[in-house]
């Protein structure tokens, strides 16, 4: 967006979307963020001097711990293709070269060529707004098979540098190049140059590369000299600290718009260095997990170990369309989805037990409804039986998106695999009610397939069955099963609110603003066929369990499923993912706030302090901010050398201007 008249772009977007549902949702979202900020401000204002000195100690201890974990022995490389879809299209049709190009439709642009970006055209923007900004904009329909083909070519190259490379989307990957550097006695910079040349030779496309001691920084680095460039940060603590100290927090994967606003507006934090300066506030106001994440960002720490591969947990597809309440049309779409899901499952030799129906209403409300069958299924007919029942229960309604996802997967090759489900029959029978242990509604749907899929459990966003840690055999009499995977058992509030946020953050897919007829399938199965993990949110703990529900431990399972709430977001949707992570931060915050409003701030964390200190009078936030005593770096660190193109100071000066 450098050199773009941002004000003009904003004005055009505002004028063209005003009054639309998208606009209304944006406003609702803004109001929600404002509310969260106010809440946080109020919490902040209650902090006493004693609180702050306690949390200062907590923060210092934490920073020491984090510092001790610093690993400078690994060399990570992050690679990101330049204007990927647009570049592929141009390669296939050279007449597009040099033209302002948008890949997508009047409803949605997936990416734009650099020529189009000069006009403010960008990904996730409705095409008709793109046309307004850039009248000569040329449109090309996306062709995912093409992108997958080119992506596979790039992966062949990655393979030769790191067989365990982590692909986070079709066009991005992390490579641990430590061994290559040692074995061939070459530098990270040499590997970067060589790899970019190899990718170009293999594909005819360009990419940008960042090299750093950890993945978090490597990703930031790959953006510095984009397009067709590279930036190398040496494995040197001082160089890392220099780099992150002036780095705007929004550059960090996992810090999205909402988190940025909260940190900036409540605590005055805009750069990573300021995270350390306000460490006491971060520890006082955020969960331990979030605070750890923020402090590690301030220290320039990120993932250095290759995360263990996880088995695919679910497989699904979804379809966006112009909103309709025509039930026959909706059932037709459902049948298509069932067929799609069957194909994907059968291609991978998988069957599943839990079927989740995702619906996005015309008002952008997202609902998910899940059902667990007794036996494993993967035929279109079986899928459709359950999906139809789930959909019927929601009718009448007007929808703009439908999705089906199968989880609790079973590999047909693996006959020994058995379900670890356990009945909670006793509970439901004895309670003699329709309430689960959360006090929420649970429906029962009787199987009508005539097969041995038996009675099933149904979970809705109004009440997910509570997971049981024990194991046991299912019985013929049972009416309900406990899910043995907790990733699809989000807390009600998380799911509902998250969905709102996620939908709002991705408003242009088929929202019909442009009146264009689209019927886009999100290629979750194809695009996300990597079974490796995304980096978003995993900077602290790569071993985070999917069910932890802690924001800092959020993972993208299979590269696209949120480990906290099970929501799916393809890796290409980085902004939306960041907002998603923000949402979990915000949710945990809200939960903390709800609890904390009934008791002193972070009482459990204050407990040890309260033994030795007595509270002093409350002071105003402004005073606290001025008097924070977290040590800032004693001397102004100099930029490290090693960047191939622009000097790092110039880069950050540029970033600052954009803040
Ligand atoms: N994509 C998408 N929807 C988005 C963002 C991206 O479908 N909201 C797709 C199109 C992009 C591809 O993912 O070509 C890769 O995304 P990037 O964010 O890496 O964007 P580009 O590769 O297009 O451009 P850059 O040169 O900035 O990396
Ligand atoms: Mg890219």
TrEMBL record:
The keyword Nucleotidyltransferase applies. Residues 76-256 form the UmuC domain. SUPFAM superfamilies: DNA/RNA polymerases, Lesion bypass DNA polymerase (Y-family), little finger domain. Residues 633-643 have a biased composition (Basic residues). Residues 606-643 are annotated as: Disordered. GO terms for molecular function: damaged DNA binding; DNA-directed DNA polymerase activity; zinc ion binding. It is found in: Nucleus. Belongs to the DNA polymerase type-Y family. This is DNA polymerase kappa. The keyword Zinc-finger applies. Pfam families: IMS, IMS_C, IMS_HHH, zf_UBZ. It catalyses: DNA(n) + a 2'-deoxyribonucleoside 5'-triphosphate = DNA(n+1) + diphosphate. GO terms for cellular component: nucleus. Keywords: DNA damage, DNA repair, DNA replication, DNA-binding, DNA-directed DNA polymerase, Magnesium, Metal-binding, Mutator protein, Nucleotidyltransferase, Nucleus, Transferase, Zinc, Zinc-finger. HAMAP family: DNApol_IV. InterPro entries: DNA/RNA_pol_sf, DNA_pol_Y-fam_lit_finger_sf, DNA_pol_Y-fam_little_finger, DNA_polymerase-Y, DNApol_IV, PolY_HhH_motif, Rev_trsase/Diguanyl_cyclase, UBZ3. Its EC number is 2.7.7.7. Residues 555-592 form the UBZ3-type domain.
């Amino acid at each position: 967006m450098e050199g773009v008249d941002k004000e003009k772009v904003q004005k055009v977007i505002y004028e063209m979307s005003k009054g639309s549902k998208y606009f209304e949702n944006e406003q609702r979202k803004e109001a929600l963020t404002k509310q969260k900020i106010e809440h946080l401000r109020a919490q902040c204002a209650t902090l006493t001097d004693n609180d702050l000195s306690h949390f200062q100690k907590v923060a210092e201890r934490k920073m020491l711990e984090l510092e001790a974990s610093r690993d400078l022995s690994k060399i990570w490389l992050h690679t990101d293709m330049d204007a990927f879809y647009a570049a592929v299209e141009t390669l296939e049709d050279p007449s597009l070269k040099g033209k302002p190009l948008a890949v997508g439709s009047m409803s949605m642009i997936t990416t734009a060529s650099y020529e189009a970006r000069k006009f403010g055209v960008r990904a996730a923007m409705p095409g008709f707004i793109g046309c307004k900004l850039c009248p000569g904009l040329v449109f090309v329909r996306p062709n995912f098979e093409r992108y997958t083909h080119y992506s596979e070519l790039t992966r062949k190259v990655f393979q030769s540098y790191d067989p365990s490379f982590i692909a986070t989307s079709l066009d991005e990957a992390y490579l641990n190049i430590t061994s290559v550097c040692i074995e061939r006695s070459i530098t990270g910079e040499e590997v970067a140059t060589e790899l970019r040349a190899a990718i170009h030779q293999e594909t005819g496309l360009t990419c940008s590369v960042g090299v750093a001691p950890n993945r978090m920084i490597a990703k930031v680095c790959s953006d510095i000299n984009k397009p067709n460039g590279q930036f190398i940060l040496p494995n040197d603590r001082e160089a890392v600290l220099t780099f992150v100290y002036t780095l705007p927090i929004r550059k960090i994967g996992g810090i999205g718009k909402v988190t940025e606003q909260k940190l900036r507006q409540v605590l005055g934090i805009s750069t990573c260095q300021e995270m350390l300066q306000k460490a006491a506030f971060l520890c006082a106001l955020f969960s331990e997990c979030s605070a750890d994440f923020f402090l590690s960002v301030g220290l320039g720490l990120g993932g250095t170990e290759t995360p263990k591969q996880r088995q695919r947990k679910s497989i699904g597809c979804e379809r966006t369309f112009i909103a309709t309440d025509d039930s026959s049309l909706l059932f037709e779409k459902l049948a298509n989805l069932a067929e799609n899901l069957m194909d994907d499952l059968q291609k991978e030799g998988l069957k599943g037990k839990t079927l989740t129906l995702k619906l996005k209403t015309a008002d952008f409300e997202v609902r998910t409804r899940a059902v667990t069958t007794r036996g494993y299924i993967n035929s279109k007919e079986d899928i459709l039986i359950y999906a139809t029942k789930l959909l019927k229960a929601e009718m009448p309604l007007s929808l703009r998106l439908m999705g089906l996802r199968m989880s609790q997967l079973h590999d047909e090759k693996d006959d020994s695999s058995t379900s670890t489900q356990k009945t909670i029959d006793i509970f439901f029978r004895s309670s003699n009610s329709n309430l689960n242990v959360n006090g929420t509604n649970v429906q029962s749907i009787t199987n009508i397939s005539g097969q041995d899929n038996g009675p099933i459990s149904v979970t809705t966003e109004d009440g997910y069955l509570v997971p049981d840690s024990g194991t046991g055999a299912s019985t013929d009499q049972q009416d309900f099963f406990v899910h043995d995977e907790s990733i699809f058992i989000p807390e009600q509030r998380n799911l509902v609110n998250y969905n709102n946020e996620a939908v709002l953050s991705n408003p242009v897919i088929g929202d019909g603003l442009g009146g264009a007829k689209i019927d886009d399938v999100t290629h979750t199965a194809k695009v996300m066929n990597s079974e490796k993990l995304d980096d978003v949110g995993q900077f602290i703990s790569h071993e985070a369990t999917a069910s932890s529900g802690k924001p800092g431990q959020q993972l993208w399972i299979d590269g696209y499923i949120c480990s906290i709430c099970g929501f799916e977001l393809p890796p290409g949707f980085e902004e939306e993912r960041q907002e998603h992570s923000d949402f979990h931060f915000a949710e945990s915050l809200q939960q903390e706030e709800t609890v904390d409003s009934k008791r002193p701030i972070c009482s459990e964390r204050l407990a040890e302090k309260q033994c030795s200190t007595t509270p002093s009078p409350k002071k105003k936030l402004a005073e606290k901010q001025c008097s924070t005593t977290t040590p800032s770096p004693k001397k102004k660190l100099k930029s490290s050398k090693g960047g191939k193109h622009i000097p790092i100071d110039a880069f950050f000066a540029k970033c600052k201007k954009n803040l």
